[in-house]
């Protein structure tokens, strides 16, 4: 099974702390790297956790609060200093395009790679990236400004070959792809060997949903239904539900409620308020609703 990993670079909220870095994650899928959010200090976190800069092909920004995007000027500059030549794709709400162009023209005039901006409509669910191995789509969220999450879906792979059967029937290598595509095999004497005798089921396609800053959305579970792993912000516990309501954030209980109703495989918690010396209360609250809940911490790697 190919790699599908979530690298946690930062899981704090807006107020900086010594304990947690600002929001950022790197998604590793089949040797490709995608960054979600890029808070201040993200490039330092990349170095600290030995994630290669050069392999990041796109950055996805959920919204334009500083703890999710202040790291972009620095990372673009570092890409230039390290000799990047491959294009960098940045997906963000439309208002960021003018800011990005000003940043590049003032701080990064001599970079030798293209920056391609993709404007996001945060109000609709839409596929914004697709290649042979995955799709990425937006998840409309409800925060104080335009905001969306991102849903990574691995495309199904072809069935696996049963090597012993291929050898037994002396099937030439040139026919393997046809059999993976569903073809039967006809022996030289005309006997048909059904495809199901030659293959077994492919690995189950995996998925990851990233739900950045948002208030509790009762219908959100429908969008993230049955995903393998869900990240949902859990800034507060229910003790501070009044704060969550004011600032349009979620509590751990609310995040776990979404996970439970969506029947996800695993819930990752994050975006912790600086008021908590320990996130143990956040985890406890979530696990009372959804037992497969886990805290994120800088340096953690979650296998999907």
From TrEMBL:
Residue positions binding Zn(2+) 1: 63, 65, 143, 213
Keywords: Endonuclease, Hydrolase, Metal-binding, Nuclease, tRNA processing, Zinc
Pfam families: Anti-Pycsar_Apyc1 (PF23023)
Catalysed transformations (reactions): Endonucleolytic cleavage of RNA, removing extra 3' nucleotides from tRNA precursor, generating 3' termini of tRNAs. A 3'-hydroxy group is left at the tRNA terminus and a 5'-phosphoryl group is left at the trailer molecule
InterPro entries: RibonucZ/Hydroxyglut_hydro, RNase_Z/BN
Cofactor or coenzyme needed: Zn(2+)
UniProt remark on cofactor binding: Binds 2 Zn(2+) ions.
Active site annotation, chain numbering: 67 (proton acceptor)
GO MF entry, a single one: 3'-tRNA processing endoribonuclease activity
UniProt-listed CDD domains: RNaseZ_ZiPD-like_MBL-fold (cd07717)
Binding site for Zn(2+) 2: 67-68, 213, 271
Top-level division of the source organism's lineage: Bacteria
Family, as annotated: Belongs to the RNase Z family.
Subunit structure: Homodimer.
Stored NCBIfam families: PRK00055.1-3, RNase_Z
UniProt-recorded name of the protein: Ribonuclease Z
